[in-house]
Amino acid sequence: MTTATKLRLPGEANTVLQYTSLSETAVDGPLVITSGKGNRLTDIDGREYIDAVNGLFNVNIGYGRPELAEVAADTMRRLSFGSSYFGRSTVEALELAEKLASITPVGIDRFMLTVGGSDANDTAIKLIRHGNILAGKPNKMMVIARRDGFHGMTIAGTTMTGIGSLRDVIGPLMPGVVHIGQPGPAGDNATAAELEAKILELGPENVAAFIAEPVSLPPGLAIPPADYWPAIRDVCTRYDVRLIADEVINGFGRTGKMFASEHWNINPDVLTLSKGITSGYLPLGAVGISDDLFQALYASDSAMPHGFTGGGHVVASAVAKANIEIIENEGLVDNAATVGEYLNSALATFAAEHSSVISTRSLGMLAGFDVDGVQITGDAATAGKAGYAILAELTKVGVLVRPYGNTIVFGPALSTTREEIDEILARIGETLERLQK
Fold it and tell me: Of the candidates 98, 107, 102, which has an alpha carbon nearest to the alpha carbon of residue 267?
């Protein structure tokens, strides 16, 4: 404990923190978490937090499930590593792929297992491009993504990500990627017509794929209108453009369906998965592909020009299968949908009670609300930083949320109760009232 406490002192931590202002953490050090149970976390000083962002929207079954620890230990004792190279696999990886085929959208039946979400999205692009080359379409390489979408932190993932603050500070990115708008009032109110126009501008013979999250968080939780995704699917089919549904955050019950694609019957050509696949208990990702893409790849007798040493790790695969079984057996997707409906109505009441709240929206265990920055900071010059002011104050009172600009987004575990929703909103409301100028 003494050593861990020392890590909180300014400048003494050896870890380079991720997605963090290093200069800010040099003052007080990181928040060091030592244990978790359900939606609750405890830090090194014994202070408890409601983790309303569920880790990074990935601990879908909640913290502290001993079943997964037991599965991991049992598997590791028997087999610590198993390669997926050179025609090898493991029972655990094969069984996980079979399980995924039984629960993913219609047409997604084959899976390449990866390490996480970023490399899953990289893998999706490489498989599509490789398939196009094998099919005699070597010019069909370009990728269309969306502004403010997020697809990972690798170079390819960052290139497809449409967030300037992540793209503009690392130098040259992967060529052949362009961006269009987001749907819904939280985005640009973009429609499928913008995608079609961009495909025609670039030339359908040059466009390989369109990648998007069914529900995107960075724009401030962009929930699309009902006609958006069916129209997108139609455009992609018409121009032979592979539709990649990035369900890294959305998948495994987060939106009240096993996959958010089901809300709009999307039927993607490629599905990228991570986060909730193991509920964050171990790193793992997956890329699901349609049969026609698989057949294009199968046509080659050369070795698949892609893979990761840790892809589909035997222990992570075993944990993933057990995690999915918990989600199914405990009815957690249904709970996310039912409690999600309660959350949506509670948010409407919440907005009526707090004048700084401009609008709200939610889907399953994903929720967000927009605030009037001036009411929070009292100054138009700093109003754009209201979200971070709310984050700082909520952390002090033991609630963890995620600001995207002046939109506060949260999404607790799928097992969350109505009482926990009430507690989260009550603490947030009290904090808004204290901050309101």
Answer: 107
